[in-house]
Automatic annotation (TrEMBL):
This is enoyl-CoA hydratase. Pathway: Lipid metabolism; fatty acid beta-oxidation. Its EC number is 4.2.1.17. Gene3D superfamilies: 1.10.1040.50, 2-enoyl-CoA Hydratase, Chain A, domain 1, NAD(P)-binding Rossmann-like Domain. It comes from Marinomonas balearica. It catalyses: a (3S)-3-hydroxyacyl-CoA + NAD(+) = a 3-oxoacyl-CoA + NADH + H(+). In the central section; belongs to the 3-hydroxyacyl-CoA dehydrogenase family. Residues 317-495 form the 3-hydroxyacyl-CoA dehydrogenase NAD binding domain. SUPFAM superfamilies: 6-phosphogluconate dehydrogenase C-terminal domain-like, ClpP/crotonase, NAD(P)-binding Rossmann-fold domains. Pfam families: 3HCDH, 3HCDH_N, ECH_1.
Amino acid sequence: MIYEGQALKVTKEADGVAMLTLDLAGDSVNKFNTLTLKELAEAVELLKLESDVKGLIIGSAKDVFVVGADISEFLTWFKLSDEALADKLREVHSVFSDISNLPFPTVAAINGIALGGGMELCLACDYRVMAEKAKIGLPETQLGIYPGWGGTVRLPRIIGVDNACEWICGGAQKRSADALKDGAVDAVVPLEKVLQSARHLLQQVIDGKLDVMARREELRAPMHFSPIEKMMVFESVRGVVGAKAGKHYPAPMAAIKAMEKNVSQSIEKACETEIKGFIKVAKTDVARSLVNLFLNDQYIKKLSGTLSKSAEPVKQAAVLGAGIMGGGVAYQSASKGTPILMKDIRPEALDLGLSEASKLFGKQVERGRLTAEKAMQGLNSIVPALSYGEFKSVDLVVEAVVENVNVKKSVLAETEDHIRDDAILASNTSTISITELSKALKRPENFCGMHFFNPVHRMPLVEVIRGEKSSDKAVAQTVAYAQAMGKTPIVVNDCPGFLVNRVLFPYFAGFSLMMKEGADFQQIDKVMERFGWPMGPAYLIDVVGTDTAFHADRVMAEGFPDRMTHEGKNAVDKLYELERFGQKNGKGFYRYEQDRKGKPKKIYDEEVSALLAETVDSHNEQSDDEIVARMMIPLCIETVRCVEEGIVGSPAEADMGLIYGIGFPPYLGGALHYLDQMGLKAFCELADQFSHLGKLYEPTARMRDMAKNNETYFKA
């Protein structure tokens, strides 16, 4: 035994091969925290003194290699002075450089996930052997930073500048086939042969069949480009990455800037260049927001995991109502391994639901994510039904019929008579009270809400709604099923619109008020899209459906009459009256035609302004800043109300609900993080400028108290 600590150990075999095994005590994964980095540095110092070691394999005793840095711990680094942060980064660089310069060859045996710092450790080794099902990557740009432990220096030298920019700026996890094709790893083998292959590779170096020193020299030296070659490579990459990243996410472009400079430097200077650029992005508001999102995401996953531990797994599910939504739920369940019955009263609806699921499975096959055989197995686990014949075997039923309280009550009551007494019923409603729906049931304790977002296969969020009589068991089992479907569940309490739609409709109300003042909906859309929303409010209403928006608006107005009612006819009312239902029938605020891929393409419709003229009662011009304020203030205040009233359990859950449910701009970190960044005092002063618009723009008393005391929703 050369070294033994709480995070790793180093042993030496009889043949002179040393094995550094990562195995962080008390944790299910390996990660780079202070302890692991300290012990790695100590182990490497001892290895430098071992004169009879012929080679080193770095592997893991866990199912993963290293998932990356412990973000919660490294947040404290970002608060250090620039020089103190630089010193911290240099300490890690020093350890990784020592590994690169050991007097014997090194091989990373990548048995599972190796991300961020874990990947950078692999890059510091001479060779890399990867398990077939492992994944590697440098996802730091998704946190608003870029690799800071040598990733921007070593990866371009190993796989080329073009590939390295795509890996680092995209932040994706790479499968073994892609890693081998790009040259990031030297071999891909079955999991059980990873260590054996690593030993074989070492032996080839020891036997002189592979020139490890030539490889090291290539990594240490500057890369050679003519000025024109370098300009062409980086200008091309900058154009592609800049278009994807946009102005709100500076990290990808900062990574390119660092690589453009450091590829022409020796490795020592290149690492300093990386450190200098890393410090700049680590201190940005965007990095703080995105790291906060990551931590919030971990928090809600932990909450869901704790809840689902007490639940029986759903072995057989069912969905009531086929069509696009029912087909989407059926596909998502089947694709993740839970067989599902899909019931409808109309054969043509079942055909539509199966067609939708088949289309989605087909796309997975086209993209190489599923074999045709696996896709067929998934499709065959969706069983269409016109009756309740097999419902006694069902553990959980998702009701997804038309958004009408009486229809839903009737269907739920009928279904309850055909399922086991312990089976769970869940309603996929977007606005109707779960407590109200439960009045039709004999066993309301076995009922809760399960609100999916459209399209089901893409939207990550599921709201699990607890009614007045919903039991802990019903909520826990529904959460467990949502997790099994690959979704992120957030438990909320019952109220009109629950969390997401309750917050979304004040945002729409801000839009409608500006439309009544003669605003141009195209301008509003463009401003909000530039601000960071995936689509502007008019476009979003078309996607949701103006019919859906119209009916939901009535529910919200009834639930919150003090701030969600409006006088007279607004733009959505008029479009609904004209049967312009948005993408559903090809006309709403915009017209829609199918593009070459069969997707609806948005086209400006010159008729709309004239059609909406009767809903305009004044003509006021708004600046871009005013448009943003008038859209964001109602949304933020309503999010605060949901937290204050206990509709959602925490600021973290509220923010993640908006990010995952309606595409709130991630670079802002969520509505409550956005308030923290702005400062509640500044926000309340801004809101007061629009007090003439009514209660939608009135901060709560608690917000004003927090503003006076400089309080925040997220603690520093």
